[in-house]
Design brief:
Arc Repressor Mutant, subunit A, 3-stranded antiparallel β-sheet, 22% strand, D-Maltodextrin-Binding Protein, domain 2, elongated, 11 helices, alpha/beta, 6-stranded mixed β-sheet
Amino acid sequence: MQLRLLEYFVALAREGHFARAAEACNVTQPTLSAGIAALEQQLGKRLVDRDRRYIGLTEEGIAALPWAQQAIAMIDGLNHAAEAARGSLRGTLRLGAIPAAMPMVGHFACTLREANPELVLSVRSLTSREIEQALGAFELDAGLTYLDHEPPAQVIAVPLYAERAMFVARAGSGFDGHKSAAWPEVLAQPLCLLHEGMQNRRIFDANLAAHGFAVHPKATADSYVALLAMVEAGGFATIVPEGYAALIPAGSWARILPFDSPFPASRVGLVVLDRRPSSQLAQAALAAAHGINLPRSYRSA
């Protein structure tokens, strides 16, 4: 059985569209369709339900998909192990990061590159649930995500830091003389926040509810860059992890304040799939996580 046929099948299941799957595999659509048909003939089972277009996987296809994903991952692991035996790990390490952890990516990337100069890092911004799913489907090698709230299953985790929330308002909006922010005055502002599909928002809402508060944002987004852009433009305030606050130059447009009654900090860390043998890329990610020298702005996890 050719590995390429399994790659066609996995790509089609992921993309849900023949043309997009063919583009992802760098082949023509007829080539991909012929490859899927050849795989079905070899297995003696129909894997894909289709009628001029992709409809979905058959029951046999759903059952076969995890094995195809694992087979591809094992071959990739074999190749990386052989490369590493020569003393230099090559290839691409695929990292998924929740938006709240994006400032940590820089520290991780520098540490990873020092130990593996020939390795390429590919970073995707994903939700915590998407990271867990992508790890299980062998579409990621590692993830940066929350460890305690909705913790991912079947992973090895390295705690990195404890996230603390900061209030951000535009200078001149009434907070210039404040040293901290109180929840009632913050919740009275026209807030822009992450949408409810993001785990950071779900943690935030749960903490608010535990203290008898609720929030009704005037705008939502899936990116802290978008939230900060709204605040800078005027008319909004927001709440961001301390790592983002550290990226805003001192004395600039923003007024950044801690909360006078902060909610419990949330642990963030690196996770890789718990499997044996562990891939060389997962091992490199774990080693980088253990070796990161964090700045003082991050609280210890």
